[in-house]
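Task card 7
Instruction: Convert sequence to structure tokens.
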Amino acid sequence: MKTQFNGFNTILVHAGEPRPLIEGAVTLPIFQSSTFECRDTDSGMRYIRLNNTPNHIALHEKLAVIEGGETALVTASGMAAISAALLAVLKQGDHLMVQSDLYGGTHGFITQDLPDMGIEADFFDASDPGSWETALTPQTRAIYVESISNPLMKVCDLEAVLEFSRKHSLISIIDNTFTSPVNYKAAAAGFDLCLHSCSKYLNGHSDILAGAVIGRKPLVDKAARKLLHLGGSLDPHACFLLQRGMKTLQLRILQHNDNALAAAQYLAGHPKVVAVHYPGLADSPYHEVAQRLFTGFGGVLSFEVQGGTSAAEIFIKALHLPTNGPSLGGVESLVTRPATSSHRGMSPEARRKAGISDGLIRFSTGIEDQEDLLADLEQALERV
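Output:
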């Protein structure tokens, strides 16, 4: 269904939904079939690995509409989206510019796998646009950033990234997982490709792995061809769960935003907390640019407590509400040390260079009542 509505909640509920309803079902059914009949009226063969079953098609339209992209591709995980997108735009001999502070899985793919394919990459300081041209080479084809970096919550000037990419004819790629399209519509802002780990906010219920590539149709089509050979297609049941989860995205994100800001402000004022990383704080070095770019600051923050790694472990074990788990973006709060989870694949030297201490705590706020979360933080800090 082509959406004709402007309200974002309305779009989340109705974009991509079949009209007329299939057998009158208000919720799109799960098409638990790998193979579909070939009909003369079909434009081509339908098969799960081709990402063109009814469940996939509905998701593609909904994802494209909410990000403001031309089209979309859903994948079996966030890393499937990242790898398919990068391999779609880069070939042997090409060069990639990459934001220095980013998700550990992406860092590993870029530093460990791309070199084996003859693709080089250089990291740049996203906070210093004046230095970006020094990372350019005649072979540079693309620039890769995160809307809010993982795990230090840095925000680079995304408008400057877009201007830089246009000036040098680079393909602009952004991982928009941490903001979600509620806080920032990256494809609509002008990024050529927008990536998501849909396991996080888009689904929001910690029960699937999924990813998405959204943006310009020629580039998304190239990513789809790569995914066809890599085999990272999303199964129909996960498609169904993602379709369901996205309908409440804005309702959830608004609560995530509020809870994270309240937690960051509380922690920033606590004597046992030595650092808080969250762009919503007025004294954050990224507050001005985040305020200009985003409608909300997201549901994730990171911080350090006095006493380093041992104190961080005591704090995490003392919490009652947040689960010690490696992901983020669910309705329940999650807490982790990136050094042991999202960034454990990086060497200790690489983590230190990126500013990720072993005692850094990443806190993904859920949608619990704010006063309960703050009370839990308080009692846990008393144990430190």
